[in-house]
Write a structure and sequence with these properties.
With about 180 residues, this protein is an alpha+beta fold. The protein has helices at about 1-25, 40-50, 55, 140-150, 155-165, and strands spanning about 30-35, 60-70, 75-80, 85-95, 100-105, 110-120, 125-135. Strand 5 (about 100-105) and strand 6 (about 110-120) form a beta hairpin. The model has no long low-confidence stretch (mean pLDDT about 95).
C-alpha cells in the first residue's frame, strides 16, 4: 500500500511539472514545412482541395462529410480511424496557388489555420507545396505534449509524405 501512495504522488508531481512547463509555453505557435513534387501546381491544387478524395491518399482520414457552409465558406468534417471528428472551413481560396483552412470548432483545446502555398518549380517543372500552421493550444498540458512529445511539424510531415506517396514520389521535407 505504501508503494501505491508513492507511485500516485510521483505521478501527481509529474503531472504538475508538465502542466507548469506547459503554462510557461506560448499559447500560439507557427511552424512551416515544404516539399517539392513533380506534379504541376494545378494537380497539387486539385488534390488538396477535394476533401471527398482525402481518404484515398491520407491514411489518417477514414471518411469526409460535407458540412453546411460557415460564414460563406466551404466546410467539411474529417473522421479519423478512431472515429474522432474534426471540422474545417476554407477561409481563403486562390487557385492554384493559395489555400487557407481553419479548424472550425472553437470548443476544442486547440485551433488555428493551415496556409498552403503552391509555387511552380524551377524551369516550370513540378511544384513546391509549403504549409504554414498558425496554431494555438489553450490547455497547458496539451501545450507541453504538442511542443515536446508530438512536435509542431508532425501532422504537416505526415500530410506531405502522404501526398508524395499518392504521386509515387519520395518526399524531402524543408523548413
Amino acid at each position: 500500500m505504501k508503494w501505491t501512495g508513492v507511485i500516485v504522488a510521483a505521478l501527481a508531481l509529474l503531472a504538475l511539472i508538465i502542466i507548469g512547463i506547459g503554462a510557461t509555453l506560448p499559447q500560439a505557435h507557427s511552424a512551416t514545412r515544404a516539399a517539392h513534387f513533380s506534379q504541376p501546381p494545378e494537380v497539387i491544387w486539385k488534390t488538396i482541395t477535394t476533401p471527398e478524395a482525402f481518404p484515398s491518399w491520407r491514411t489518417s482520414v477514414k471518411n469526409v462529410e460535407p458540412l453546411p457552409g460557415r460564414n460563406g465558406h466551404i466546410s467539411w468534417r474529417e473522421i479519423d480511424s478512431r472515429g474522432g471528428a474534426m471540422p474545417y472551413e476554407v477561409v481563403e481560396w486562390i487557385p492554384p496557388s493559395r489555400l487557407v483552412t481553419r479548424i472550425a470548432d472553437p470548443n476544442l483545446p486547440f485551433g488555428g489555420t493551415w496556409t498552403y502555398e503552391i509555387q511552380p518549380g524551377n524551369g516550370g517543372a513540378g511544384s513546391t507545396l509549403r504549409i504554414t500552421e498558425n496554431g494555438e493550444v489553450y490547455n497547458p498540458f496539451f501545450r507541453f505534449v504538442s511542443r515536446f512529445i508530438i512536435g509542431y511539424h508532425a501532422t504537416m510531415d505526415g500530410y506531405l509524405h502522404a501526398l508524395g506517396k499518392k504521386f509515387g514520389e519520395t518526399v524531402r521535407l524543408e523548413n
